[in-house]
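CHAIN AND CONFORMATION:

***
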Amino acid sequence: MATTKIVYSCIARGSTILCSYQTAPTQCSTEAEAAVVLDLMIPDRRLKRHGRCTFHTPNYTFYCVVRKGMVYMCASNPESEKRTNYLFLSDEKKTFMQAGLMDKVSEATSHSLDAVFRNQLAQLTLKHFSIGPSLEILQSDLHEVKITIGQNFDKLMARGENLDYLTAKAKDLESAAESFKVTSNNLEKHGCCSFYRWRILAGVIAGIVLFVVIMFVLWLTGVIRDGPLPWEPELPPIIPLFPPAPPSENN
């Protein structure tokens, strides 16, 4: 693993450097390059509320982390390892936030925070000035792995809850479909029984009406009637035109 040498660090608001520290004696050269990098971040649309980026110059590699408009920057040798520099920037941001200086950022001018934060920045920079494979890097990697595993576990749990919810919904729909099927079959049977019941009743009524009509017709025609109708006049007895012959004496 290549050795990481952090030679410069600063905290800026936009393109204004509020506090900086450099281990090498060429302060003006490195800070001038840092100012150029900050100026390049704005037109390049890299100065966002959250994000990180890397810039390469002939002498150094600049690493930047942006949080809520604040830029946390460091410069190290070109062959340095990226994760080591970002580990330093994470410590730098955390220390600056814990120092309670965020309320002074909006009104701060160039290097106005050197008096209150440069010593802490120097301690961090010297701590990471020459760092190779260390326990902190391994712990940082382990912490990232733990966070990733936790996020994946939460996603799996959320998916499991969604699957349980969908399974319960599917069972409810299946039960509702089965109940609907039973109800529809019962209604179908009841409808068929009612249909045939009404047909039988209609047939019986039609038979009764037909029987009454036939009997009435037979009664009117005298087939099943003895005597005239009540409204017909009674006919006189029929007198024969030729009286019957008297019986002979011989008989």
The chain has a mean pLDDT of 77.
